[in-house]
Amino acid sequence: MKILSIDPGSTSTKIGVFIHGACLSHRRQALHPLSAKGGQAISPFSEDPMAKGEMIRVGVDHDRQLIGLFRGIHEQEDMRFACIMGELEKQGLGKARFDAVVGRGGLIRPVSGGVYKVCDALLSDLKIGVSGSHASNLGGILARRFAASSGCEAFIVDPVVVDELDEVARLSGLAGIERQSIFHALNQKAVARKVSGVLGIPYQDARLIVVHMGGGITVGAHKRGRVVDVNNGLNGDGPYAAERSGSLPVAGILRVLKEGRYTPESLLRVVSGEGGIFSYLGIVDLREVERRMDDGDAEASLAWTGMVYQIAKEVGSLAAALDGKVDAIVLTGGMAHSARIVKAIMKKTAFIAKGVAVPGEFELEALTDGALRVLTGREKAKRYGE
Asked: What is the pLDDT of residues 374-386, one digit of tens each?
């Protein structure tokens, strides 16, 4: 059994080829050696059914100037297809036939979590960017193209627009403006399933708070298999991160717009790429921030502490959303590699529930596992729009 997974980013494309039955020893990850007040750390996928195989991983970096020549995301399809084909040929897989091809889910219409077949309607919405334009839209487009040559099904798994919010969680406080669910659904759902298994609780029965800490930070309340509340990490909501501002006071936004310091468009770019830690310190590398803290830099210490403070506050608010019944607080994403950050958050939230660290991002594994669940009959693929 062979499965091709495709994860397009803004200037890169990650691909993985899972070959069932091959040795996986080089892909296993060691436990992350840290804990705080009952917290623990786990390896994300070493016990899953897909562990009985090999994942060949390849990352392709794209020149920013080349990417800038394309007017729309979907126009990059041919270029990225050729790059993926070139990497497959280098691995001796240029003529391989796949049993499934799975791509990162993009900005389609809001859907519940799960695995979706890339049908014509889904493909059309990815190409026109029905909910916005993002490199992840190419995941399903490229999956459909590679699947056609192998005569197999194409899928996407848990796209960023997964919307399982409780109705009360949609209320913003102003009629006509609803809270939206846009978050790291793929990694959050995959890690939540894994942690539930470690705890001996089916995901459909678990009550978890999952904190994804990457370029943006999203904190989700997972209740019985649904993410019933989560901050919109794409459009300025929740804790600030390395370069995203998170939630801002409305009066402050109106003031800088009135003063002409920003247009609505330029302010959106700033809060998405020049906010957070960068706005205070002029850097986005959190390792450098921690080095400055070690050297006694008070500004670095305050900015770092503020981010941890806001993350912990978000966790606390979602504990209330779960009525205080929380099985575990899960910290994942690239920032979870920082023992200092993980320990600080665990310490501030230990009164709610034990903490579990699953550092890193596991999109390729999550995509592959979604396809495997369908191929092995553990899950039925959903049809978009039904």
From this structure: 999 999 999 998 7
